[in-house]
Amino acid sequence: MVEYQTSRIVEKIFRHPIKSVGSELINSVNLLAGSTMPGDRVWALAHNKTRIPETGRHWLPCRSFLRGAIAPTLMAISAKYDDHTGTLDLHHPDAKSFSFRPNMDTDLQKFLDWIEPLCPENGPAPSALYKTENRGSTDTEYPSISLLSLSSLNELSEKIETDLDPRRFRGNIWLRGGKPFEEFNWVNQEIEIGNIRLKVVEPIERCNATKANPLNGKKDIDTLTALQSNYGHKDFGVYCEVLTDGKISCGDQLILS
Question: What is the chain's percent helix, strand, coil content, to nearest 5?
Fold first, then answer.
């Protein structure tokens, strides 16, 4: 019988400056009530079929953008954003390293030229960086952050006999400890991490992006079938709303209310 560590500790924190274009590992983050994670999905890669609003920069659904589900090669991009200079460094195993300033229109074309070869030849072409007003372009209409479990990841890895990289699931906060998939039991409950309170809202239904290996951007595992056949659903991780301002750091413990 497998024994699990009862305490639940923050092991990893990721942000993704551009939606589906590069993950970045960080040690801590300051969150604001009712907001998405700062620096996470600040921009999204619009394509030539994206319907950009004529006024304002409203939240748009994920299908409006180029993403891992239709451009799996993008899943292998790693990123590092300099909050002071506004410079984003991008790395991919099949391309030269590239740096640019996403907020500068003068840098946009250079970025599009860099990323276009990493997009599907017969798919929509990258055309612009879209920035939603006052929030990140998460997959939820409401501002959310994602919470995931390494215990869940390890159990799924054992069932399919393959070690799954956490970056497949592009989550924000990863916990170690606790029972696999117990996070689904927290829906509609409040939790505490560090000095922050969160409300667990709903499970995250997964898409084809998780089939791609983040080391090379190639589809190699049918994660959706693995979830469905083993658990009867395609959910992995949960979405949360931030209820209070505060800081979350690696090593912080999760407390159930």
Answer: 20, 35, 45
